[in-house]
């Protein structure tokens, strides 16, 4: 009897010990399994350690507070110049003309929120009819990345020309309103590598993720992808299509490589002034010009009698002519105007030079900072019949706090 009681007590003790061990193991497993907040903390520790190890603390300070909230005011300006040339058959006359489009300066206000050099931004346009503008950027000790998208349309343009007739030069300038809007779209993607990233930081002047303590400079290697389109395909703009060899849309894709130099000047503690210049050369340049053929041309000296009706099937006038002088189309309520698409021209060329200029000023005190930045880009491309220059620039003021 006593033996059975002793055996029972031992079994109860072993059962309780086993249950206690299971409970301890379960708690230990739950404690050892990291939750979401623990993982986020580990990622932050990794980013902080990496940011501090990648720079020389004598030149670049990595703030202890990694989060930043920035209020920004920005103005973006674009100027597009579209140039063509005209030869008049049978007269040896020639003319060069240029259309210049300048949409309203796009003013916007917004904010940026991010951790170290990466974050998200949102802005609201304050300007009507200035188109749409989007941007994204991220920076590290030795790299930077920028993305910009701008799309707008306008009817307002400046027209200038120089005619060469009978040995005389005749200039002409006026302001015109296009019959239909001209659409212009540009996408800019830029990345750069900093050779002296331990002592020089682009971010110190442009997004204040770090603080430059001593003056320093560096060579930079840059790569740019740029694509844009110039489109006035609405047939109401037929006059400019006719004097422009039938071209109604031009698309370009460019890849550029360049070497530049940037310098951070630190005249006093907390203040940094940055200047950077980088010329780039095309390594890929593809221009595609879409064209219309039409039943009018620009021969002002040719007689305009006895043309008769236009035959769309044979694409000839009744007198056998394929084109009618342009004067017969202008000013008539219902001209027999006909047009059709033809094979676009595709041209590949290289060694065109574009330019990237930047200026940035920032001042840091306590956990606050202010900054002013500006950037200028020039892109140009041409085909056998036309040339387009796009000038894209912005200026930005910012105020931020570290958290």
How would you describe this protein?
- The protein has 403 residues and is mainly beta.
- The protein is 15% helix and 58% strand.
- The protein has helices spanning 2-32, 36-53, 203-206, 238-243; strands at 60-61, 67-88, 93-101, 106-115, 118-125, 132-139, 143-165, 168-194, 211-212, 216-231, 247-265, 271-294, 296-297, 310-311, 316-317, 324-325, 339-348, 353-365, 368-382, 386-402.
- A 10-stranded antiparallel barrel has the order 2-3-7-8-10-11-12-18-19-20. A two-stranded antiparallel sheet has the order 1-9. It has a two-stranded parallel sheet with strand order 13-16.
- It starts with a helix and ends with a strand.
- Mean pLDDT is 83; it is low at 1-7, 9-14 and 26-30.
Which stretches of 5+ consecutive residues score pLDDT under 50?
A: 1-7, 9-14, 26-30
- How would you sum up the global shape? elongated
Radius of gyration, taken over Cα atoms and rounded to an integer in Å: 33 Å
Tell me the series of helices and strands, N- to C-terminal: HHEEEEEEEEHEEHEEEEEEEEEE
Helix content: 10-25%
Alpha carbon gap, first and last residue: 73 Å
Number of helices: 4
Strand order in the largest sheet = 2-3-7-8-10-11-12-18-19-20
Find the count of extended strands (DSSP E, 2+ residues). 20
Largest sheet: 10 strands, antiparallel, barrel
Beta content comes to over 45%
Instruction: State the secondary-structure class.
Output: mainly beta
Give the overall pLDDT as a whole number: 83
